[in-house]
Amino acid sequence: MTRRGEDGPLTRTAAGSSTTRESPLPTGEEKTARVRAMFDTIAPRYDLMNRLMTFGLDQSWRKGTVTALALPAGSLVLDLACGTGDLTRLAQREGHRVVGTDLSAGMLAANGTPAPLVEADGSQLPFADGTFDGMVCGYALRNFTDLAATMAECARVLRPGGRLAVLEVDAPTSRLWRAGFDLWFTKAVPMLGSVISDTEAYRYLPRSVAYLPAAPTLRAMLRHAGFSAVGIRPLAGGLSQLIVATRAGEPVP
Predict the structure, then answer these.
(1) What is the Cα–Cα distance from 164 to 243, expressed in whole angstroms?
(2) Does residue 8 fall inside a structural domain?
(3) Would you say 169 and 241 are in contact if contact means Cβ atoms under 8 Å apart?
(4) Domain of 236?
(5) For residue 167, which of 32, 35, 50 has the smallest C-alpha distance?
(6) Domain count within the chain
(7) Residue 191 in contact with residue 36, Cβ under 8 Å?
(8) Residue 75 contacts by C-beta under 8 Å, 6 or more apart in sequence?
(9) In this structure, is residue 185 part of a structural domain?
(10) Which residues contact 18 (CB under 8 A, 6 or more apart)?
(11) Is the residue at 148 inside a domain?
(12) Which residues share a beta bridge with 241?
């Protein structure tokens, strides 16, 4: 469901629920600063919370994300918003060479992979044009302050014919699934976060779904950024979604 809130650029309500009158979500530099500080705080318990929030399903979804790249072993892959390195590890097991980048120094400090790591904003990547054969990104689209600029950067650093695979949250279309998801994601998860990690962070994360464009808008943004063959597939009835795209242009031999 898409909406535009009176207090800010809300594009989508969490799990299809109605817009609330909570404090407006941050935008611009305030959002960047809050996201960086939040992930610095939750980094030590981030993996545990992911497993609990998804009942462990995120592990198979992440494997599917790397597989969706459909790249030969030895390809150079960027793990955008790499966090603690789940996707990096999986890509390395597939024989890929991986570089990780993240806005949060705390996340990079908790990243135990041997991959080269770079602290950077997704909208200003410090890599040359066409550097990478592929790119993965897990549950981070809604955390980028300038999503359009970030997509343009993704296209810039990928070679023509390069592959993008993004794992992101979604909202189930079934009323029954949506009701359960809404209860879990917006009520239970913040309570769980208050016990295991950080209360405010896990109140913010369900609300941050409002930053995520609906599928038609997301496809249009990716095409405008320089991608073709954009596919969006719901996972587990819409609990998450897998977005796959190819960098437009003729591949370099």
Answers:
(1) 8
(2) no
(3) yes
(4) 14-247
(5) 50
(6) 1
(7) no
(8) 69, 96, 97, 133, 134
(9) yes
(10) none
(11) yes
(12) 168, 234
pLDDT(132) > 60: yes
Reading the block at residue 143, the tokens are 């955390």
Q: Which residues contact 160 (CB under 8 A, 6 or more apart)?
A: 130, 247, 248, 249, 250, 251, 252
CATH number at residue 148: 3.40.50.150
Distance CA 40, CA 30 (A): 15
Q: Average pLDDT, stretch 217-223?
A: 97
Q: Which of 1, 31, 11, 8 is nearest to 144 (CA)?
A: 31
Tell how far CA 161 is from the center of its chain: 22
Rounded to 5 degrees, φ, ψ at 167 are: -105, 130
Residue 77 lies in a domain: yes
Q: Is residue 28 scored above 60 in pLDDT? A: yes
Asked if residues 84 and 102 have their Cβ atoms less than 8 Å apart, the reply is no
List, edge to edge, every strand of the sheet that includes 97-102. 117-119, 97-102, 76-80, 132-138, 158-169, 240-247, 227-235
Structure-block tokens of residue 129: 């044009």
Q: Helix 189-196 crosses helix 46-54 at what angle (to 10 degrees)?
A: 150
Q: Among 37-51, 145-159, 160-174, 186-200, name the one with the lowest average pLDDT.
A: 186-200
Q: Does 18 score more than 50 pLDDT?
A: no
Angstrom distance (rounded) from CA 252 to CA 235:
33
* Two tokens, residue 146: 């300038």
